[in-house]
Amino acid sequence: MSRLLAIITSAMLIAAPGVFALDIVADGASDYTIVTPDEAFENVTYAAEELQSYLQRISGAELPIVREADAPDAARIFVGPCAASEAAGIETPAWEHFTARVVDGDLFIVGGDGEGRPLDRATRTGTLYGVYGVLGRFGGVRWLWPGETGEVVPASATFTVPDDLDLADGPDFRIRSLWVTYRNPGWLSNDYYTWWRRSGQGQDISGNAGHAYSWMLGDKLFDEHPEYYAEIGGERKPMRGTHGQICTSNPEVIEICAQKAALDSRDIVPISPNDGSGFCECEQCRALDVPEAMMPWGAGEMVALTDRIFTFANQVADRAHEINPDKLFGHFCYTFFKQPPAELEDLSDHIVLFFAYGCHWYRDPEMRKLYHQHIDGWSRYGNPA
Q1: Helices (DSSP H) in 22-160: which residue ranges?
Q2: Which DSSP category does 13 fall into?
Q3: Do 47 and 130 meet the contact criterion of CB atoms below 8 Å apart?
Q4: Which of 38, 46, 56, 23 is nearest to 127 (CA)?
Q5: Is the domain of 110 the same as that of 245?
Protein backbone atom coordinates (compact mmCIF):
# COMPACT_ATOMS: atom_id res chain seq x y z
CA MET A 1 0.00 0.00 0.00
CA SER A 2 2.71 2.45 -1.10
CA ARG A 3 0.35 5.33 -1.80
CA LEU A 4 -1.43 4.90 1.52
CA LEU A 5 1.69 5.61 3.53
CA ALA A 6 3.64 7.79 1.10
CA ILE A 7 6.50 9.84 2.48
CA ILE A 8 5.27 13.36 3.05
CA THR A 9 7.51 16.02 1.57
CA SER A 10 8.14 19.22 3.41
CA ALA A 11 6.23 21.18 0.79
CA MET A 12 3.08 19.26 1.63
CA LEU A 13 3.35 20.24 5.27
CA ILE A 14 3.43 23.99 4.66
CA ALA A 15 0.06 25.68 4.65
CA ALA A 16 -0.56 27.81 1.55
CA PRO A 17 -3.53 30.06 0.69
CA GLY A 18 -6.23 28.20 -1.20
CA VAL A 19 -4.46 24.86 -0.77
CA PHE A 20 -4.62 23.92 2.94
CA ALA A 21 -7.52 26.09 3.88
CA LEU A 22 -9.33 23.81 6.31
CA ASP A 23 -7.77 24.09 9.78
CA ILE A 24 -8.63 21.01 11.80
CA VAL A 25 -6.25 22.30 14.48
CA ALA A 26 -4.88 25.86 14.63
CA ASP A 27 -2.43 27.15 17.25
CA GLY A 28 -2.89 23.99 19.30
CA ALA A 29 -6.70 24.30 19.54
CA SER A 30 -9.59 22.84 17.59
CA ASP A 31 -13.31 23.43 17.16
CA TYR A 32 -13.72 20.04 15.52
CA THR A 33 -15.48 16.96 16.91
CA ILE A 34 -14.82 13.39 15.78
CA VAL A 35 -18.12 11.64 14.96
CA THR A 36 -18.67 7.89 14.66
CA PRO A 37 -21.79 6.04 13.46
CA ASP A 38 -24.40 5.37 16.11
CA GLU A 39 -23.90 1.62 15.57
CA ALA A 40 -20.21 1.54 14.77
CA PHE A 41 -18.10 -1.54 14.17
CA GLU A 42 -15.41 -2.00 16.79
CA ASN A 43 -12.68 -1.26 14.25
CA VAL A 44 -14.38 2.01 13.26
CA THR A 45 -14.48 3.13 16.89
CA TYR A 46 -10.81 2.20 17.10
CA ALA A 47 -10.12 4.32 13.99
CA ALA A 48 -11.72 7.34 15.68
CA GLU A 49 -9.61 6.77 18.79
CA GLU A 50 -6.46 6.49 16.71
CA LEU A 51 -7.29 9.76 14.97
CA GLN A 52 -7.93 11.47 18.30
CA SER A 53 -4.70 10.12 19.80
CA TYR A 54 -2.43 11.13 16.94
CA LEU A 55 -3.97 14.58 16.48
CA GLN A 56 -3.27 15.19 20.15
CA ARG A 57 0.29 13.90 19.83
CA ILE A 58 0.88 16.10 16.79
CA SER A 59 -0.74 19.32 18.01
CA GLY A 60 -1.64 18.99 21.69
CA ALA A 61 -5.35 19.40 20.88
CA GLU A 62 -7.72 16.71 22.14
CA LEU A 63 -10.79 16.42 19.93
CA PRO A 64 -13.90 14.90 21.54
CA ILE A 65 -15.48 11.74 20.11
CA VAL A 66 -19.28 11.47 19.94
CA ARG A 67 -21.87 9.29 18.25
CA GLU A 68 -23.66 10.71 15.23
CA ALA A 69 -26.87 11.27 17.21
CA ASP A 70 -24.94 13.68 19.46
CA ALA A 71 -22.93 15.43 16.76
CA PRO A 72 -22.75 19.23 16.65
CA ASP A 73 -24.07 21.16 13.65
CA ALA A 74 -20.65 22.02 12.15
CA ALA A 75 -16.88 21.41 12.38
CA ARG A 76 -17.12 17.63 12.32
CA ILE A 77 -14.84 14.77 11.29
CA PHE A 78 -17.06 11.84 10.37
CA VAL A 79 -15.20 8.55 10.79
CA GLY A 80 -16.87 5.57 9.11
CA PRO A 81 -19.95 5.17 6.90
CA CYS A 82 -22.95 6.89 8.47
CA ALA A 83 -26.15 8.78 7.69
CA ALA A 84 -24.23 12.03 7.16
CA SER A 85 -21.82 10.44 4.67
CA GLU A 86 -24.75 8.97 2.77
CA ALA A 87 -26.48 12.37 2.72
CA ALA A 88 -23.25 13.93 1.41
CA GLY A 89 -23.27 11.51 -1.50
CA ILE A 90 -20.26 9.50 -0.34
CA GLU A 91 -20.65 5.87 -1.29
CA THR A 92 -19.12 3.22 0.95
CA PRO A 93 -15.99 1.96 -0.85
CA ALA A 94 -14.95 -1.64 -1.38
CA TRP A 95 -13.45 -3.49 1.57
CA GLU A 96 -10.20 -1.92 2.79
CA HIS A 97 -10.54 1.08 0.46
CA PHE A 98 -11.44 4.53 1.70
CA THR A 99 -12.61 7.99 0.68
CA ALA A 100 -11.42 11.14 2.46
CA ARG A 101 -13.48 14.15 1.38
CA VAL A 102 -14.29 17.64 2.62
CA VAL A 103 -17.94 18.66 2.24
CA ASP A 104 -19.17 22.04 3.55
CA GLY A 105 -16.35 22.30 6.08
CA ASP A 106 -16.76 18.75 7.41
CA LEU A 107 -14.12 16.08 6.87
CA PHE A 108 -15.40 12.61 5.99
CA ILE A 109 -13.18 9.51 6.29
CA VAL A 110 -15.29 6.63 5.02
CA GLY A 111 -13.99 3.12 4.37
CA GLY A 112 -15.11 -0.33 3.43
CA ASP A 113 -15.25 -2.13 6.77
CA GLY A 114 -16.23 -5.51 8.12
CA GLU A 115 -17.03 -6.69 11.61
CA GLY A 116 -14.25 -7.81 13.89
CA ARG A 117 -11.56 -6.57 16.22
CA PRO A 118 -9.21 -4.04 14.62
CA LEU A 119 -6.02 -6.02 15.14
CA ASP A 120 -7.40 -9.35 13.95
CA ARG A 121 -5.83 -10.32 10.63
CA ALA A 122 -9.15 -11.19 9.00
CA THR A 123 -10.92 -7.90 9.86
CA ARG A 124 -11.49 -5.54 6.92
CA THR A 125 -10.61 -2.01 8.04
CA GLY A 126 -10.99 0.54 5.23
CA THR A 127 -11.91 3.43 7.55
CA LEU A 128 -8.89 2.74 9.75
CA TYR A 129 -6.62 2.82 6.69
CA GLY A 130 -8.27 6.11 5.76
CA VAL A 131 -7.38 7.59 9.16
CA TYR A 132 -3.78 6.45 8.77
CA GLY A 133 -3.72 7.81 5.21
CA VAL A 134 -4.87 11.25 6.36
CA LEU A 135 -2.40 11.26 9.25
CA GLY A 136 0.40 10.26 6.91
CA ARG A 137 -0.35 12.65 4.09
CA PHE A 138 -1.16 15.74 6.12
CA GLY A 139 0.62 15.10 9.41
CA GLY A 140 3.76 13.33 8.24
CA VAL A 141 3.09 10.40 10.58
CA ARG A 142 4.88 7.16 9.68
CA TRP A 143 5.30 3.73 11.24
CA LEU A 144 8.64 2.20 10.33
CA TRP A 145 8.72 -0.82 12.67
CA PRO A 146 6.82 -2.09 15.73
CA GLY A 147 6.93 -0.11 18.96
CA GLU A 148 7.29 3.56 19.85
CA THR A 149 10.83 3.80 18.50
CA GLY A 150 9.50 3.00 15.03
CA GLU A 151 7.01 5.88 15.00
CA VAL A 152 7.56 9.24 13.34
CA VAL A 153 5.10 11.85 14.69
CA PRO A 154 6.13 15.39 13.72
CA ALA A 155 4.98 18.04 16.21
CA SER A 156 2.94 20.93 14.83
CA ALA A 157 0.47 23.35 16.40
CA THR A 158 -1.53 23.22 13.16
CA PHE A 159 -3.15 20.33 11.30
CA THR A 160 -4.72 21.28 7.98
CA VAL A 161 -6.20 19.53 4.98
CA PRO A 162 -7.25 20.95 1.60
CA ASP A 163 -10.68 22.54 1.65
CA ASP A 164 -11.38 20.71 -1.62
CA LEU A 165 -9.98 17.37 -0.49
CA ASP A 166 -11.42 14.43 -2.43
CA LEU A 167 -9.15 11.43 -2.03
CA ALA A 168 -9.95 7.80 -2.85
CA ASP A 169 -7.34 5.16 -2.12
CA GLY A 170 -6.81 1.56 -1.14
CA PRO A 171 -4.31 -1.29 -1.26
CA ASP A 172 -2.80 -2.50 -4.52
CA PHE A 173 -2.58 -6.06 -3.17
CA ARG A 174 -5.46 -8.00 -1.62
CA ILE A 175 -3.14 -9.76 0.87
CA ARG A 176 -0.29 -7.83 2.52
CA SER A 177 1.67 -9.27 5.44
CA LEU A 178 5.25 -9.12 6.72
CA TRP A 179 6.64 -11.13 9.59
CA VAL A 180 9.12 -9.39 11.86
CA THR A 181 10.55 -12.75 12.91
CA TYR A 182 9.83 -16.36 11.94
CA ARG A 183 7.48 -16.60 14.91
CA ASN A 184 6.66 -13.38 16.74
CA PRO A 185 7.18 -13.87 20.51
CA GLY A 186 4.30 -13.06 22.82
CA TRP A 187 5.85 -9.89 24.20
CA LEU A 188 6.05 -8.47 20.68
CA SER A 189 2.59 -9.52 19.54
CA ASN A 190 0.57 -6.39 20.39
CA ASP A 191 3.24 -4.00 19.08
CA TYR A 192 3.56 -6.12 15.95
CA TYR A 193 -0.13 -6.25 15.08
CA THR A 194 -0.59 -2.57 15.90
CA TRP A 195 2.25 -1.72 13.50
CA TRP A 196 0.90 -4.28 11.03
CA ARG A 197 -2.34 -2.29 10.74
CA ARG A 198 -0.75 1.15 10.85
CA SER A 199 1.63 0.27 8.04
CA GLY A 200 -1.25 -0.79 5.79
CA GLN A 201 -1.02 -4.55 6.11
CA GLY A 202 -4.11 -6.73 6.03
CA GLN A 203 -6.26 -8.63 3.58
CA ASP A 204 -9.73 -8.30 2.14
CA ILE A 205 -9.97 -11.99 1.31
CA SER A 206 -9.66 -14.73 3.92
CA GLY A 207 -7.34 -17.72 3.81
CA ASN A 208 -3.81 -18.53 2.70
CA ALA A 209 -1.65 -21.42 1.53
CA GLY A 210 -0.81 -23.09 4.84
CA HIS A 211 0.25 -26.71 5.36
CA ALA A 212 -2.97 -28.63 4.82
CA TYR A 213 -2.64 -32.40 4.41
CA SER A 214 -3.27 -33.04 8.11
CA TRP A 215 -6.60 -31.22 8.21
CA MET A 216 -7.73 -32.41 4.77
CA LEU A 217 -7.10 -36.09 5.51
CA GLY A 218 -5.74 -36.56 9.02
CA ASP A 219 -4.70 -39.86 10.60
CA LYS A 220 -8.13 -41.25 11.41
CA LEU A 221 -8.26 -43.41 8.27
CA PHE A 222 -4.79 -44.93 8.57
CA ASP A 223 -5.79 -48.25 10.16
CA GLU A 224 -8.48 -48.89 7.56
CA HIS A 225 -6.74 -47.31 4.56
CA PRO A 226 -2.97 -47.20 4.99
CA GLU A 227 -2.73 -46.80 1.19
CA TYR A 228 -3.93 -43.21 1.64
CA TYR A 229 -0.64 -42.31 3.32
CA ALA A 230 2.95 -41.90 2.15
CA GLU A 231 4.97 -45.00 1.45
CA ILE A 232 8.47 -44.67 2.90
CA GLY A 233 11.01 -47.46 2.45
CA GLY A 234 8.25 -49.82 1.33
CA GLU A 235 6.01 -49.10 4.35
CA ARG A 236 3.01 -46.80 4.70
CA LYS A 237 3.53 -44.17 7.39
CA PRO A 238 0.87 -42.26 9.37
CA MET A 239 1.16 -38.51 9.76
CA ARG A 240 2.53 -37.01 12.97
CA GLY A 241 0.52 -33.90 13.74
CA THR A 242 1.32 -31.43 10.97
CA HIS A 243 4.20 -33.56 9.68
CA GLY A 244 4.21 -36.56 7.39
CA GLN A 245 2.61 -36.73 3.95
CA ILE A 246 -0.10 -38.51 1.96
CA CYS A 247 -0.19 -40.54 -1.24
CA THR A 248 -1.05 -37.78 -3.69
CA SER A 249 -1.58 -40.16 -6.63
CA ASN A 250 -4.40 -42.09 -4.93
CA PRO A 251 -7.78 -41.15 -6.54
CA GLU A 252 -9.67 -41.68 -3.30
CA VAL A 253 -7.31 -39.32 -1.47
CA ILE A 254 -7.87 -36.71 -4.16
CA GLU A 255 -11.65 -36.97 -3.73
CA ILE A 256 -11.51 -36.83 0.08
CA CYS A 257 -9.27 -33.77 0.03
CA ALA A 258 -11.38 -32.03 -2.61
CA GLN A 259 -14.56 -32.62 -0.62
CA LYS A 260 -12.95 -31.23 2.54
CA ALA A 261 -11.48 -28.18 0.76
CA ALA A 262 -14.75 -27.35 -0.98
CA LEU A 263 -16.59 -27.10 2.35
CA ASP A 264 -14.01 -24.91 4.11
CA SER A 265 -15.19 -21.47 5.22
CA ARG A 266 -12.17 -19.50 3.92
CA ASP A 267 -12.14 -17.69 0.57
CA ILE A 268 -8.70 -19.12 -0.25
CA VAL A 269 -8.49 -22.66 1.08
CA PRO A 270 -4.97 -23.97 1.79
CA ILE A 271 -4.09 -27.24 0.04
CA SER A 272 -0.28 -27.29 0.45
CA PRO A 273 1.65 -30.34 1.73
CA ASN A 274 2.47 -30.72 5.38
CA ASP A 275 5.68 -29.17 6.61
CA GLY A 276 8.91 -31.10 6.25
CA SER A 277 9.78 -34.14 4.13
CA GLY A 278 8.49 -37.74 4.08
CA PHE A 279 6.87 -37.66 0.62
CA CYS A 280 5.42 -40.79 -0.89
CA GLU A 281 7.81 -43.18 -2.65
CA CYS A 282 5.18 -45.41 -4.25
CA GLU A 283 5.51 -46.23 -7.93
CA GLN A 284 2.54 -44.06 -8.97
CA CYS A 285 3.78 -40.95 -7.15
CA ARG A 286 7.37 -41.33 -8.36
CA ALA A 287 6.11 -41.72 -11.94
CA LEU A 288 4.93 -38.11 -11.80
CA ASP A 289 8.43 -36.82 -11.00
CA VAL A 290 10.74 -35.62 -13.77
CA PRO A 291 14.20 -37.17 -13.21
CA GLU A 292 15.93 -34.42 -15.18
CA ALA A 293 14.38 -31.68 -13.01
CA MET A 294 17.08 -31.49 -10.37
CA MET A 295 17.21 -28.87 -7.64
CA PRO A 296 19.89 -27.93 -5.09
CA TRP A 297 19.32 -29.53 -1.69
CA GLY A 298 21.75 -29.50 1.19
CA ALA A 299 25.24 -30.14 -0.12
CA GLY A 300 23.96 -31.86 -3.25
CA GLU A 301 20.91 -32.19 -5.47
CA MET A 302 17.56 -33.98 -5.53
CA VAL A 303 14.67 -34.42 -7.95
CA ALA A 304 12.20 -31.56 -7.56
CA LEU A 305 8.72 -32.73 -6.53
CA THR A 306 6.90 -29.85 -8.21
CA ASP A 307 5.27 -31.82 -11.04
CA ARG A 308 3.76 -34.48 -8.76
CA ILE A 309 2.66 -32.02 -6.07
CA PHE A 310 0.94 -29.68 -8.51
CA THR A 311 -0.65 -32.56 -10.43
CA PHE A 312 -2.37 -33.35 -7.14
CA ALA A 313 -3.13 -29.66 -6.50
CA ASN A 314 -4.72 -29.33 -9.95
CA GLN A 315 -6.93 -32.35 -9.38
CA VAL A 316 -8.03 -31.22 -5.92
CA ALA A 317 -8.68 -27.62 -6.97
CA ASP A 318 -10.65 -28.52 -10.09
CA ARG A 319 -12.75 -31.13 -8.30
CA ALA A 320 -13.38 -28.85 -5.31
CA HIS A 321 -14.38 -26.04 -7.68
CA GLU A 322 -17.02 -28.34 -9.20
CA ILE A 323 -18.47 -28.76 -5.72
CA ASN A 324 -18.10 -25.11 -4.66
CA PRO A 325 -17.39 -22.64 -7.49
CA ASP A 326 -16.86 -19.74 -5.05
CA LYS A 327 -13.59 -21.09 -3.64
CA LEU A 328 -9.95 -20.48 -4.50
CA PHE A 329 -7.16 -22.73 -3.33
CA GLY A 330 -3.84 -21.55 -1.94
CA HIS A 331 -0.60 -23.42 -2.54
CA PHE A 332 2.99 -22.72 -1.53
CA CYS A 333 5.85 -22.63 -4.02
CA TYR A 334 8.28 -23.80 -1.40
CA THR A 335 11.13 -26.19 -0.46
CA PHE A 336 10.83 -29.39 -2.55
CA PHE A 337 8.41 -27.72 -4.97
CA LYS A 338 9.70 -24.15 -5.17
CA GLN A 339 10.96 -24.33 -8.73
CA PRO A 340 8.38 -24.34 -11.55
CA PRO A 341 7.09 -27.63 -12.98
CA ALA A 342 9.23 -29.20 -15.67
CA GLU A 343 6.47 -30.86 -17.71
CA LEU A 344 3.12 -29.82 -16.25
CA GLU A 345 1.50 -27.81 -19.01
CA ASP A 346 -1.09 -25.91 -17.02
CA LEU A 347 -2.23 -25.01 -13.53
CA SER A 348 -5.83 -24.92 -12.41
CA ASP A 349 -7.30 -21.44 -12.73
CA HIS A 350 -8.52 -21.81 -9.14
CA ILE A 351 -5.05 -22.03 -7.57
CA VAL A 352 -3.44 -18.99 -5.92
CA LEU A 353 0.35 -19.26 -5.61
CA PHE A 354 2.22 -18.17 -2.47
CA PHE A 355 6.00 -17.75 -2.72
CA ALA A 356 7.56 -18.57 0.65
CA TYR A 357 11.02 -17.10 0.11
CA GLY A 358 12.90 -15.73 3.11
CA CYS A 359 14.31 -12.23 2.77
CA HIS A 360 17.65 -13.41 4.18
CA TRP A 361 18.09 -15.68 1.15
CA TYR A 362 18.41 -12.57 -0.98
CA ARG A 363 21.78 -11.73 0.57
CA ASP A 364 23.39 -14.21 -1.81
CA PRO A 365 23.34 -12.74 -5.37
CA GLU A 366 23.30 -16.20 -6.96
CA MET A 367 20.42 -17.37 -4.78
CA ARG A 368 18.52 -14.16 -5.48
CA LYS A 369 19.00 -14.69 -9.21
CA LEU A 370 17.79 -18.30 -8.91
CA TYR A 371 14.61 -17.31 -7.06
CA HIS A 372 13.84 -14.60 -9.56
CA GLN A 373 14.15 -17.23 -12.28
CA HIS A 374 11.72 -19.43 -10.36
CA ILE A 375 9.16 -16.62 -10.10
CA ASP A 376 9.54 -15.83 -13.81
CA GLY A 377 9.00 -19.50 -14.58
CA TRP A 378 5.83 -19.70 -12.48
CA SER A 379 4.48 -16.55 -14.13
CA ARG A 380 3.95 -18.35 -17.42
CA TYR A 381 0.87 -20.02 -15.94
CA GLY A 382 -0.83 -16.69 -15.28
CA ASN A 383 -2.14 -17.66 -11.83
CA PRO A 384 -2.66 -15.03 -9.15
CA ALA A 385 0.18 -14.89 -6.63
Answers
A1: 42-59, 83-87, 126-139
A2: G
A3: yes
A4: 46
A5: no
Cβ neighbours, 10 Å, residue 170: 22
Residue from 96, 40, 192 nearest 49 by CA? 40
Say how far residue 16 (Cα) sits from the centre of its chain.
38
Taking the C-alpha atoms of residue 149 and residue 33, their distance in angstroms, rounded to an integer, is 29
**Angle of helix 186-198 versus helix 126-139 axis, rounded to 10:** 70
The verdict on residue 3 lying in a domain is no
Summarize pLDDT for 230-283 with one digit per residue, the tens: 999 999 999 988 899 999 999 999 999 999 999 999 999 999 999 999 999 999
Q: Which residue, among 379, 320, 371, has the nearest Cα to 353 in the 3D structure?
A: 379
- Look up the domain containing 177 and give its range: 10-203
Same domain, 368 and 221: yes
Q: Residues 140, 20: one domain?
A: yes
Question: Distance between CA atoms of 317 and 346, rounded to whole angstroms?
Answer: 13
CB 290 within 8 A of CB 303: yes
Helix axes 306-323, 251-262, angle to 10 degrees: 50
Q: How far apart are CA 378 and CA 338, in angstroms?
A: 9
Phi-psi region at 157: left, alpha or beta (left = phi > 0; alpha = psi -120 to 50): alpha
Q: What is the pTM of this model?
A: 0.84
